[in-house]
Amino acid sequence: MKSQTPSNRATESHGLIFNTTCICLTAIGEVFIKKPGKTHFFINRLQILTGTIVLLIGVLVYLVDRPPDQTYFVYKTGVDISLHNTLPNLFGIIGQSLPSFAHVFSFILITAGLIAYQKRGYIIICLFWFLIDSAFELGQKFNTLIIEFIPGWFAGVPFFENTGNYFSMGTFSFGDLAAIFTGTIAAYFILITTKREGEI
């Protein structure tokens, strides 16, 4: 999800915008993912750790490979945390779509590690994040339609204030869509591989 010009600000804020949906998904998980009669669930630390590591790799793309004025959380910190032009480009061409892969992959694993313990829950979470990330990517292609529905009060809310810029200045990419799909499949494979014994 690239900005068309270096001066366009904050076209890379999808990870920050999506974060709040984790809260909603957690509440949904309590109702739809747990087995009837069960009042407990187990945190899968390996899944959470794996998701966190991949998320940090995605953040590293923004810190090293992207100009700071293109990334919301970098220029909004008020501190120069960008390593762009300080370190060499780390990810090359794969860095163009790596954040899209990392976002959907990491949030699936972190969410599942917190609230799911069976395959049905894994599938729900994978589909949820796949649809969310795909919708935001497609929103950049049909941005004129999406922008009309963005509430005016978003402008005064941190993170959400950048929603309009994200859709109007971002660039739709089939590569990002492919990365989202690949990240979803990879995350499901990891979830199945790392599930606890006795889970079904």
Could you walk me through the main structural features you see in this protein, from its secondary elements to its overall organization?
The chain has 200 residues and is mainly α. Helix content is 58%, strand content 2%. It is built from nine helices and two strands, in the order βααααααααβα. α2 crosses α5 (98-115).
Task: Give me some keywords for this one.
200 residues, 9 helices, mainly alpha, two-stranded antiparallel sheet, disordered N terminus
Brief summary:
This protein has 200 residues and is mainly alpha-helical. The protein is built from nine helices and two strands.
Helix content: 55-70%
**What is the string of SSEs from the N terminus onward?**
EHHHHHHHHEH
Spatial gap, N to C terminus:
36 Å
Report the mean per-residue pLDDT as an integer.
75
In total, the number of strands is: 2
Low-confidence stretches: 1-37
Percentage of residues in strands: under 5%
* Gyration radius, in Å: 17 Å
Computed structural class: mainly alpha
- Total number of helices: 9
Number of domains: 1
Shape: globular
Described by strand count, sense and barrel closure, the largest sheet is: 2 strands, antiparallel
Taking strands numbered 1, 2, ... along the chain, how are they ordered across the largest sheet?
1-2
